[in-house]
Fold this protein.
Amino acid sequence: MWDLMLTGSYSPTKIAKIVNKEWGYRTRKTRRAGGTELSINGLYKIFNSQFYAGVIEYGGKKYKGVHEPMVTWDEFDRVQEILGNKGTPRPKTHEFAFTGTIRCQECGCLYTAEIKSKFIKKTQTMKFFTYYHCTRRKTTIDCSQKKVASDEYLELQIVDFLDQYTIMPEFRDWAVEAIKESNDKEIADRTTIYETQQKALNEAQRQLDNLTKMRYRDLIDDEQFLKEKETLQSQIVDLRQKIDQTESRADRWLDLTERTFNFATYAKDAFEAGTPQDKKEILVALCSNPVMKDKRLIIQAEKWFVKVKSDYEVLKAQYDRLELTKKPLTKAQEEALAYIKTQWWRWRESNPRATDMF
């Protein structure tokens, strides 16, 4: 319908006729209504709706939706011109970093955000502020959380938390070095498992082939054939799935483990310099269920993130005492550095699966 309208050669009335008579379109059927042809008014509502250009209207405000727009803004404006709706303003959308992720610890409702403005007399300019507050939508709970928290205050709390868990690039490099060395063993283990699974698959396929031959020769009846065939086919499907998983196991393990240490090294910098969407993704990766109470953001770090921190603090303290900025290193410094690196590798080996961390 949008494509037809954008040609400029079809009126809404003609489009409605094509939609209803040629395409057989009918409205959504409900218990009391629906199942009818699309009306001209209904068609106009579609062409006037900014939803199709990617905008969601909620609470009197408009936001950028996560759905894929059906038309671009230029195309939407073009249709408005065709319809004679000149001067239709494009919406001012706001992208908030933490909506949909933070809940109220008291009532469990999500926190929402709104923008407030203030006129600054000294500079004669208007300044805008973003504040988060509990939606307090549960009527069964008398939530006392009425205070608002600015986005700057929330970001400071998250940065402080990330700072506690950030590791130095040197430790990240050592971890990745150890990961790649132990990946050789992972590949060997995977190969052994793969060969065993492949043998089992070949055997199940051989049994299925023999079963089919027996049926052709009338050595078994249809009932027995179908029963055993179903069992063998189920085994074959299951084994093929396991083989696929085994083939990608080492690469997935290596990728996820590297991502763990990359996150611990660079998440703070990425958060401070990131877009609202970047900040939301980092918070979700850090903590699956952040909550707020009395303007304080309560973050329980994911298990994998805590593991990275636990041994790191002790080893970093030893590393700092070495004063490695002084060159060249003494023999004692080199030995101490080698010890720290070995301890860090042993910690990683005691937590060998990144998939267990995530």
About this structure: The domain at 2-83 is CATH 3.90.1750.20 (Hect, E3 ligase catalytic domain fold).
